[in-house]
Design a protein that fits this description.
It contains six helices and seven strands. With 181 residues, it is an alpha/beta fold. Strands 4-3-1-2-5-6-7 form a seven-stranded mixed β-sheet. Helix 5 packs across helix 6. It is extended. The protein starts with a helix and ends in a 5-residue tail after the last strand.
Amino acid sequence: GKPGLRFDLTVIVTVQLMLFAWGTFVTFEERPAYVVFNIDRFTILSTEDVDTEGVDNPFLAAPHAERPLMVYMRPPQTHSEKTRAVENAFFEGGKSMTYQAERYESYYDNIDIVVAAGIDIESKVKASADNRRAMEVFLAEAGGVVADYAFLPIEGRKNDTTIAVARSTGKVAGYVDIDPW
């Protein structure tokens, strides 16, 4: 019986639907799209972080069932290429190599390099009872023994942790709540 009730409810529903659509869009844009291996660590990146427009990279153009996409960032090979990359990132305001889609290659074609970059997890496990418990939990879930996995740092937006990849396949076996640094 209140005059204007229909208008008030329409405005409320419209505003809530707009906010829901905006929240869905932001969630979609910020989801992890790439897990990039860069020299000695993994970095999680969203679609907004990596500009693939205009990049002629056949690896990225191919369809991938895996999401987020595991990629290997090809590091600079020559001294001049390294110098140019540093100058671009620090002095010219360009993006770090981790964000440069033209450097991305197949992660699974570079497993040997990834596994070789693993950290010495044994010393971290021995250093703390919390780390020992974290490793026990991981092994109970993943199975196997420590030697079956390579452990590497993974940088997230809020914190860093340790990712375990199977030495034989390179597939992500899980995460271990151990500070990799």
